[in-house]
Amino acid sequence: MSSFIIKRSRSRSLLLWQTHGIRIRSILFSSYNSLSNPSDSTDSVSASGFSSFSTRSFKTTAFGFKFSHLNQKFGDLAYSGGSNLVSTTRSLSSEAVAVAATCDGLTVERIIANQWPILDENESDWKSHAAAISQSIQVIKRRLQWKKLLVRLKVLSAELNKPDLWNDPTHAGKISREHGSLAGKMKGVMTFERELLEHIDMLKLAKEENDSELESETLKALMEMRRVSKEKELEALLSAENDSCSCYIEVQAGAGGTESNDWASMVMEMYKTWAQRRKFSVTVVDEMPGEMAGIKRATIKVNGEYAYGYAKAEVGVHRLVRISPFDSGKRRHTSFAAVAVIPILGDGSTRVQINDSDLRIERFRSGGAGGQHANTTDSAVRIIHVPTGITATCQNERSQHMNKASAMAVLQSRLDQLEMARQTAMNAQHTQSLTEISWGNQIRTYVLHPYRMVKDLRTNYEVSDPDSVLEGDLDGFILSFLSSSLDKGDEER
Amino acid sequence: MIRIFPSLRFTSLLSAAKPLCSVACSSSPVREPPQRASFAEAKSAPASNSLSITPKSPLFLRTPSHATPLSEVWKWHDWAKDLASSVEVSSSNSEYSLDSAILLRELKWLIEDSIVDDQLVIHKREIANDSESVKLRASLEELYDLWRQRIEKRRPFQYVVGCEHWRDLVLCVEEGVLIPRPETELIVDMVEELVTRDDWFKNGVWADLGTGSGAIAIGVAKVLGGRGRVIATDLSPVAIAVAGNNVQRYSLQGMIEVREGSWFEPLKDVEGKLVGLVSNPPYIPSDDIPGLQAEVGRHEPKLALDGGIDGTDSLIQLCHGASRMLKRGGFFAFETNGEKQSKMIVDYMTSDHQNSFSDLKIVSDFAGIGRFVTGFRL
Ligand SMILES: C[S@@+](CC[C@H](N)C(=O)[O-])C[C@H]1O[C@@H](n2cnc3c(N)ncnc32)[C@H](O)[C@@H]1O
């Protein structure tokens, strides 16, 4: 019966393919029917949700990576609007139950279990492509912490369905935003998964019908999916709540005077060049120079999408071993620098409310009579949030007013971070402020002497050319840390 | 901050003669109600010799017409850096000596103001090709000279570049006009707080006496949000010219009127009509003038600094005027030399002008010094 439907729909839609490209949709629809139990009560809802899915998934293929990227980014917009919300939820949860499969019952899990050999991308072997893509899907789900997402989505949906939700509009807004972005994220993956299975169906069909043109086209589509899946794997590394934010990076020198001050400034330079290479914009907000050389501490603002997502991998203590240029005895020295990273939350997120009366604002280097007596271009201020004791300084701007505004922004982000650390069980390490980072928490060692090497102590990722790393070539370290922290544990958490 | 005037950078020839409104003015009242335009026309022509004074063009507004090889610029930069770093060694560690860290920051700003592609000079040295050239707003010789003046002559940085960043403004300054101080920003903050609390203050006439570069007047006009007006006065013709120029650059001619004359003398027409009166008059005791920091004592105008024997000559005059000029309920804020002067002024106002003022207060600056006296006309 089902195969009859498919054939019929296929022969009809083959014509459509040339002009409208709706064929996939009709095939999909039938394949879905063939799979699900007609008595299943969720069927109608799923099926309708499904047909809209497949249209989307077709677009995904057609426009390739760009679209799916957009799709993911604007998941919020695309999926959260108005009454769609509820139906999205339902179709999502039912999807989650009904595992996507091909007509003959092949699923991503089974493909992986089959252990088809993965050949070079250019080999036209659909099984190899399918296996590679399936593995990627598994990696992506793990990185997104799929099971946690499912649970969270359920909680959020339950919240959204409460009749009194909008009595507290701020809370409601937050919930619906989070729901929208979660749903968007998950849909992106499920769509991708379905797309794979659709292509497999199509391919088998083409073989059956000896339609070589269709076969090669489908194979091409699979190849493209394989490429996209690698990109999606990377994207999934940066899918945590504030990953897309800009951020502040702070570096503080450890004990040891000039040698560690110099090391701290080398670390800061490393981040500045890294950020510039990534096309982020960098501004120095605050800098306390060392007496002889280097810096005691400094804060830079790194502006750009995903700056926080990447930079958070750098939080911790960085250790340097070298012959100190400041030691006339040419002895080997070990110095430390601590790094903290603070996300700058977007306007959409709820930020800590700061009362003016809780603030004390001080001129940074006060002294002397001031006013008309003094002419200095130094107009740095320090703002102290009295209840928490948290402070922020800015001295890079050319007017006191602007220094104050910029210090306020730092203070706001620090307080936001403190609040986040309190509220969520977010990977606590990233939210540590400089004062909390223990000097024992070493994450990386840079050895310039007696041998040359940079080694990450968390991942064992290692590079034998310290210069390139100090010149900002950090992505290897960052990506390996991000993947190792998300990929550990073989379950889709 | 300079980024606020991107188009001005390229119209500097024009702006030297007649600084026009640019993108920056979008927040200011470009579309003036007619009555205000006439207010400006009728009275803004300064009475005397200030007409003949043409304000200098600050570096950042000049035409970037000096193409210079990057390698030459780097050579200058290295030289300037060395000069800045060497000061700590040579000079004593007194409160008023030069500080390398601050000089290095000034050097960065000098580059920002004078080189179109300043990033290329400061950050991208490794990747830039040294046969490239950059466009400078001053010749390299001039830049050598300017930096030498800064360090050897202790010429204030703000005179070197011809501007001072103050609040969110970039004000042109030059010799003959006091460089506005960070402390004084707080006067505008106080006014801002007041007018957001009480609309009455937004619609009336304000006065800024001894306006200098026009800083307070422009700051106040902006927080009034286009409704009230401000009269800015000064005795110094250079100040009148510079203030007028700054007012034009922010296209606030319709809101701010600059008048030349001594304290209240040019304000006869608004006696008893002011809703607000602000001033940062000269307040340094004459005896302190010879010992001032080099940048101040050697370069800034005495007229702007010297407040007589105990420094309160001008402040006392302002107190008298305040009771006469302000409407009932009107607000005043004066900057003073600090705690001692502030107390004197408050005492003076409570004893000699009892029943004239209420809510007299001493407000501290960010260094914790009792810097301002504020109050309301009863
Ligand atoms: C300390 S400066 C303040 C300038 C400006 N308001 C500021 O805060 O940057 C004092 C100003 O008062 C002006 N001044 C001095 N004597 C004056 C007088 N008799 N009448 C009007 N202005 C006077 C000076 O020319 C100078 O511009």
TrEMBL record, chain A:
UniProt KW Protein biosynthesis keyword: yes
Q: Which GO terms describe its molecular function?
A: translation release factor activity, codon specific
Q: Which GO terms describe its cellular component?
A: cytoplasm
* InterPro entries, per database record: PCRF (IPR005139), Pep_chain_release_fac_I (IPR000352), Pep_chain_release_fac_I_sf (IPR045853), PrfB (IPR004374)
Which superkingdom is the protein from? Answer: Eukaryota
User: Which NCBIfam families would you find in this protein's record?
Assistant: prfB
**What family is this protein classified in?**
Belongs to the prokaryotic/mitochondrial release factor family.
Give the protein's recorded name.
Peptide chain release factor domain-containing protein
Annotated source species: Microthlaspi erraticum
Q: What broad taxonomic lineage does this protein's source fall under? A: Eukaryota, Viridiplantae, Streptophyta, Embryophyta, Tracheophyta
Automatic annotation (TrEMBL), chain B:
**Gene3D superfamilies, from UniProt?**
Vaccinia Virus protein VP39
Specify the signal sequence span.
Answer: 1-16
> What InterPro entries does its record include?
DNA_methylase_N6_adenine_CS, HemK-like, RF_glutamine_MTase_cyano, SAM-dependent_MTases_sf, Small_mtfrase_dom
Q: Which CDD domains does this chain map to? A: AdoMet_MTases
**GO MF annotation: an example:** nucleic acid binding
Pfam families for this protein? MTS
Which ranges form a coiled coil?
none
Per the database record, which ranges form the Methyltransferase small domain? 197-283
Q: Which UniProt keywords apply?
A: Methyltransferase, S-adenosyl-L-methionine, Signal, Transferase
Q: Which GO biological process categories is it annotated with?
A: methylation
Q: Which PANTHER family match?
A: PTHR47441, RELEASE FACTOR GLUTAMINE METHYLTRANSFERASE
Q: What is this protein called?
A: Methyltransferase small domain-containing protein
